[in-house]
Amino acid sequence: MKNLGVILFILVIKTQISHGSGPNAVSKERRHDYIAGAIASLRKTPSDKLNAAMDYLNVVENDHCRSHFIDLKLKCLIGESKSYCKDMPSADERNKCQFYSDLIIINKLSQKNFIGTHTHYNIMKNKIDVDTEIRRVLGLRYAGLTTEFAMSRHLNCPRSTAKCLAPGIDSYCLATADARNLTWQSCVGALVWFVGLSRNRF
Fold first, then answer.
1. Which of 102, 146, 168, 170 is deepest in the core (most CB within 10 A)?
2. What is the pTM of this model?
3. Residue 202 belongs to some domain of the structure
4. 101-119 pLDDT, tens digit each
5. How far is Cα 172 from Cα 109, in angstroms, rounded to an integer?
6. Parent domain of 57
7. pLDDT digits (tens, 9 = 90+) for 80-91
8. Minimal CA–CA distance to 36: which of 154, 162, 161, 159?
């Protein structure tokens, strides 16, 4: 799966920044490989490592990656995630780190699609631990999306198998993302995150 860790970033840049080609700019096989690899990486990574990566990227996003321009923020976060993952002790850990860092960044950029302005305002106003509450609310939104995916015609294989889940997630997001005012990658990011964190219970 060499170099698959940047596929979703390429698609983000194409669809959200330059308004070029969508997911079909990358072959179906590579999209499926990426999704399967991302699910497997999440399932194999302890929660404390995921939380550490989220905390790190939260800090840099609010510090020197702060920008109103999505392309600048994205490039900065990509660079920071690569530096962060480079310090992992093995090639396998670095590969997994790049997968889950990709997803963290994608889900950060998609957050407004899942948490409306009013909800976000109430979280900021009423909660001391804002990041924890945002993660909780996003988890509920992702769970709802995953439930609809699980009930759709796109899921037609054992749920515990990442390679089998990947084509279903891809086709579901291609078919439904626009109707939900989501990009393909924000739909994939949410589903992969929830399915991956569910380990083999999904």
1. 102
2. 0.84
3. no
4. 999 998 988 888 888 777 7
5. 20
6. 4-197
7. 999 999 999 999
8. 162
Question: How many structural domains are present in the chain?
Answer: 1
Helix (H) or strand (E) holding 24: none
Q: Measure the CA–CA gap between 169 and 32, rounded to whole angstroms.
A: 9
Distances (CA, A) of 201 to 72, 129, 160, 196, 198: 38, 28, 7, 9, 5
* Whole-angstrom distance, CA of residue 17 vs CA of residue 27: 20
Is the per-residue pLDDT at 18 higher than 50? no
Q: Is residue 135 part of a domain?
A: yes
Distance of CA 127 to the CA centre of its chain: 24
Side chain identity, residue 126: N
Structural domain contains residue 140: yes
Q: Is residue 144 over pLDDT 70?
A: yes
- How far is the C-alpha of 112 from the C-alpha of 100, rounded, in Å? 20
